[in-house]
Amino acid sequence: MDNEQTEKPPERPIDRALQFLYGRINYERQPTGRGLYPFRLARMRRLLRELGDPDTHYVVVHIGGTKGKGSTSTMVAAMLTAGGLRTGLYTSPHLNHLGERFRVDGVACGDEELVDRVAAVREATERMEQDGKGSATFFELTTAVALLHFQRSGCQTAVLEVGLGGRLDSTNVCHPRVSAITSVGLDHQHILGDTVAEIAAEKAGILKPGVPAISGVADGPAREVIEAQAHHVGAPVWRIGRDFEVQCHAVQCHALDKPSPNEPFSSEPWGTTFDYRSHVSESPDRLGWRIPLEGEHQGRNAGVALAIIDALAASGGPVVSLADQRRGLSEVVCDARTERFDLRPTVLLDAAHNTDSIAALCDVIRRRRGSQPVAIVFGTSHDKDAAAQLFQLIEATEHLILTRFHENPRWRDPAEMAAIVEGYVANHPANQRVTVEQKTLPTEALQRAQQAVGPDGLVVVCGSFFLAAELRPLLLASPAVASPT
After folding, report:
1. In a domain, 166, yes or no
2. Is there a domain that residue 170 lies in?
């Protein structure tokens, strides 16, 4: 009887597929110093040849950037799907299931499909490695899985989000119809470079000869680097602020006009309204369009996405009607991007994890909070600039609860972050109003934040995809978590 009780359940095909992938070197879990990342494109190209070049069977849109590339990729894919085109979307990292990285018409890759794709990629990988081409990494394998999945699913178009940088990213073996760089900021400096110009050079590595390049970078050294590289390879550039414009409408919400401590945050209208005008395409202006994502940065991302759609049509690619563009944007869903949970208190879940994305999140908090108290739950990776993020967050809250995630070894010690905050507050007396606490478990941090602000307040969870991944299932499934006693 004891033997029967301790017997392990039989291993499922999906378990074996995931073991194969996660058994490879995974730089999402093992950050190291610059120069030690053996990124090469030759191995990726060989792997795709072994698979029959699946990426040549559909029109590709390639999107990179420091901030906004995931949201922009999702918006472009949503518009293409709304236009009747079977569309693949490859993003990373995933929140809870690997299949989330590989979506077709918004639907994540299922276990049965994933097993089939991984089996084919595994066979191709073993043939390649027998020829002495070296071991493929986790991200190379998942990129191959994505491209194969889109082919076998009959996709007509595919939107590929760059994983890291651009020049040597595994996705950069594709031959896109349009390329885009949403933004450039300081992130992943230990790999990409210490300055914005150096990082821009890596991101501009995705630009291809004759392929329209959409740039969300309006000025500064990053713009100069991107446009110099575009000129070098012969890629025509559509730049925000020159070739197309995006203007977001001022937020009109009750909490800002007439703050009421009895009015819960969640009752306010949500989303962003914007105007888009193009000066280089024949498409009409899009005025007063709305997306269900909050923040001026999301309105800007929508503008870049519309420029991509315009460039596709102008280059002889797929054409999406204005009605389908508007419908696709109005229905877009981006998990963990200022994602609102209408609980009591309201919870905002955001995967912001660098200085620029935290700044955008803080802007949303300031615009939307009204008179409600705010508590922020923050946890980040040890390779991120925690100080720069924390200094911004302190200005936007009364309660800061520092925590860590547990499913990835890159977590930053909450005690170390608390020391950073204490040093900052000591030199900025106005911020002594902020209470700072530490909780090892994210669930405890969330519950403490909810208790701190009460049922009509606002809780913001941010700092990492990994933290969002650990807390999002609880927010989705358990109202009890959102209503502590």
Report:
1. yes
2. yes
Say what the pLDDT of residue 361 is.
Answer: 95
Determine, yes or no, domain membership for 28: no
- Mean of the per-residue pLDDT values of the chain: 89
Tell me the C-alpha distance between 92 and 94, whole Å: 5
Boundary-marking domain end, from 313, 330, 347: 330
Instruction: Give per-residue pLDDT as tens, 364-405.
Output: 999 888 788 999 999 999 888 899 999 999 999 999 999 999
Give per-residue pLDDT as tens, 287-346. 999 999 999 999 999 999 999 999 999 999 999 999 999 999 999 999 999 999 989 899
Same domain, yes or no: 295 and 377: no
In this predicted model, what pLDDT tens digit does every residue of 50-107 receive, in sequence order? 999 999 999 999 999 989 999 999 999 999 999 999 999 999 999 999 999 999 999 9
Please tell me whether residues 348 and 388 are part of one structural domain. Answer: yes
CATH assignment at residue 444: 3.90.190.20
Sheet order of strands, 107-108 included: 107-108, 102-104, 87-90, 157-161, 59-64, 178-181, 213-215, 237-239
Distances (CA, A) of 285 to 29, 247, 322, 342, 478: 44, 12, 10, 34, 43
86: CATH: 3.40.1190.10
Within this chain, do residues 172 and 197 fall inside the same structural domain, yes or no?
A: yes
Is 117 among the domain residues? yes
State whether 248 and 192 are in the same domain: yes
pLDDT value of position 95 = 92
- Per 3-state DSSP, what percentage of the chain is helix, strand, and coil (rounded to 5)? 45, 15, 40
Among 278, 300, 330, where does a domain finish?
330
| Structure tokens given for 118 | 């991984």
373 and 295 co-located in one domain: no
DSSP letter at 343 equals S
Q: How many domains does the chain have?
A: 2
Instruction: Describe the crossing of helices 296-314 and 69-82 by its angle, rounded to 10 degrees.
Output: 50
Q: What span, in angstroms and rounded, lies between the C-alpha atoms of 103 and 100?
A: 6
Give the residues across from 289 on adjacent strands.
Answer: 274
Q: Name beta bridge partners: 215.
A: 181, 239
Q: Given a cut of 70, is residue 4 above it in pLDDT?
A: no
- Single-letter amino acid code for the residue at 299: G
Residue 27: what pLDDT? 60
* Per-residue pLDDT at 32 exceeds 60: no
